[in-house]
Design a protein that fits this description.
The chain is of the alpha+beta class. It contains 14 helices and 19 strands. The strands form 5 sheets. A 6-stranded mixed beta sheet has the order 11-10-16-15-9-12. Strands 7-8-2-18 form a 4-stranded antiparallel beta sheet. Strands 3-4-6-5 form a 4-stranded antiparallel beta sheet. The two termini are 24 Å apart.
Length: 533
């Protein structure tokens, strides 16, 4: 065997060995023979939602709430700035439709408010003044361009937050992508507990710290609250019966601290009652702010509010430094774990609601796998028989290349950690057909050279050389189309594009390189004088 042929044969054998090593965890998925480092290095092929079951969700993001929240933050900032500049005003509020209003006593104060808003809040535009009783209300709304920017950012931030939550949830190969202006698609293959996942994903998890207001119980029960105070409900769980009750509690509207300043959240066990809770660690800014709040409010109650539910409202007995806090509320261990996950991942910038919820059962996925495998085997078997009958012994060479093509294709999917889906199986079937087409082009070229009286070696050499350009042109154009589908397609289209792209690379290698090595081996070792083609 010549040195050049030996090198090419060595490359083919190395590729076969590597493919088998990569595919071993997939073929023997349940086997415990392989060491842990092997399975960790070469993961089995991941199956998509349509093959192994799981949940499919389409979430709608309430982007209007994000705009309202931003207007509320602007109102708080404006309130602080007016107090710092000694501007006399009655109140600042945000009315329905996101209209921010400043109620002033006289025209002089109104002019000062106008100047302040113009300098500090360029994204607000003035509306006509209105009357608030005997006083004037200066009205402002957010510019349309800024509204669209906030809505777009809310969806992008929600997508990133949900991705962080899903990653901590431990789902393999999840799909999260934006659909339209305010929708997010989530697919979680192989999920065992859909209800918990839906609860975890949909929780807004907006954590706020608010000071408790001193309001008489009679006024609280009737809803007669002073301006700047709102009624929430404190969640209490009876330790003996585990019965959940909600008690009204008055808190100030102003949020003194938010969960955005949390750097870590962990599940801890309360030693007094042996119940799980969530320990919070603030970042440097949050720790400083928490220290100031506790120092200035010793003897008062601080409400810990999660999604407008008060989980605890302890008395501040002393100044708390170090940036640590704890949420208690008779959680179960699962509830505490999920709460810690969403707090670490961050709160959603706007509420989300489930618009579409589909659960794919594993039995349906198994049936899809069986049908897909059957289609691949049946199509492959028919091609093998036809090639063997029509091209005789040369057809067997093409069949060997076809089988290796399938092995290489599956190993590349495993190596790149791609997910196999039903459209992906369709891509495999198409690729096998294209691989045979390449062999047909080569064999017909070889037949032409044989009819011209060329020796077997020259006929093979010319046949591969003349067919190579045609094969390359056809596959490159198909590969470009597959890459475009992958870049701009979604869901099933991407699954098809992945297997098609991988299959094209594999089929060109097996048809042009592997087949040529097999032909050259027999022509050199057996001294063949006539080709069976």
């Amino acid at each position: 065997m010549s040195g050049n042929l030996r090198i090419r044969a060595g490359i083919v054998l190395f590729c076969i060995a590597l493919a088998l090593v990569v595919l071993a965890p997939t073929v023997f998925r349940e086997s415990k023979v392989f060491p842990s480092w092997w399975k960790k290095t070469f993961e089995p092929i991941h199956l998509g939602l349509d093959l192994q079951g799981g949940i499919h969700l389409v979430l709608g993001v309430d982007t209007d709430k994000a705009v309202e929240s931003q207007m509320g933050a602007i109102a708080d900032e404006l309130d602080t700035l007016m107090k710092e500049q000694d501007i006399v005003f009655k109140r600042v509020d945000v009315a329905a439709g996101g209209v921010l209003g400043v109620v002033v006593y006289d025209e002089t104060a109104g002019k000062l408010v106008e100047d302040l808003v113009r300098k500090q809040f360029g994204n607000l535009q003035a509306l006509p003044d209105s009357r608030a009783g005997e006083y004037t209300r200066k009205n402002y709304q957010m510019q349309e361009a800024e509204v669209q920017r906030i809505k777009d950012y809310a969806v992008r931030q929600a997508l990133e937050t949900l991705r962080n939550r899903v990653d901590q949830f431990g789902v393999s190969e999840p799909v999260l992508q934006r659909e339209g202006d305010d929708r997010i698609l989530i697919q979680l293959p192989g999920l065992k507990d859909p209800k918990r996942a839906i609860d975890l994903i949909g929780k807004t998890a907006r954590l706020e710290f608010k000071m408790v207001a001193d309001v008489p119980e009679a006024d609280l029960s009737r809803g007669r609250l002073p301006a700047g105070v709102r009624r929430l409900y404190e969640r209490r769980v009876d330790r003996a019966t585990h019965r959940v009750t909600e008690t009204p509690i008055a808190v100030y509207d102003k949020t003194v601290l938010t969960g955005d300043l949390i750097s870590d959240a962990r599940v801890t066990i309360d030693r007094s009652f042996n119940e799980p809770g969530v320990s919070l660690q603030f970042n440097s800014v949050g720790a400083k702010r928490f220290d100031q709040i506790t120092a200035n409010n010793v003897g008062k109650r601080l409400a810990i509010v999660l999604d407008d539910v008060v989980y605890s409202a302890p008395n501040i007995r002393e100044r708390i430094s170090g940036g640590n806090a704890q949420i208690t509320g008779s959680f179960t261990e699962q509830e505490a774990t999920d709460l810690a996950i969403v707090l670490r991942a961050g709160s959603l910038p706007a509420p989300v609601h489930i618009m579409e919820d589909r659960t794919v059962g594993p039995s349906l996925g198994r049936d899809s796998i069986n049908r897909g495998i059957f289609s691949v085997l049946l199509g492959g078997l028919l091609v093998i028989v036809i090639m063997a009958v029509y091209y005789r012994l040369s057809g067997l060479v093409a069949n060997v290349a076809l089988i290796l093509n399938l092995v290489f294709m599956m190993s590349l999917l495993a190596l790149f950690k791609a997910s196999l889906t039903l459209p992906g199986i369709a891509g495999i079937v198409l690729t096998l057909g294209m691989a045979v087409d390449a062999n047909v082009l080569i064999f017909e070229r070889i037949r032409e050279e044989v009819r011209r009286g060329q020796t077997p070696r020259l006929a093979v050499q010319e046949g591969f050389a003349r067919a190579f350009r045609t094969i390359l042109d056809a596959n490159v154009t198909t590969l470009i189309a597959a890459l475009v589908l992958f870049e701009f397609g979604t869901g099933p289209v991407k699954g098809f594009a992945v297997t098609l792209s991988v299959g094209i690379v594999s089929s060109v290698f097996t048809a042009v390189f592997v087949s040529r090595v097999i032909f050259d081996y027999f022509l050199e070792k057996r001294k063949i004088s006539q080709l069976s083609i």
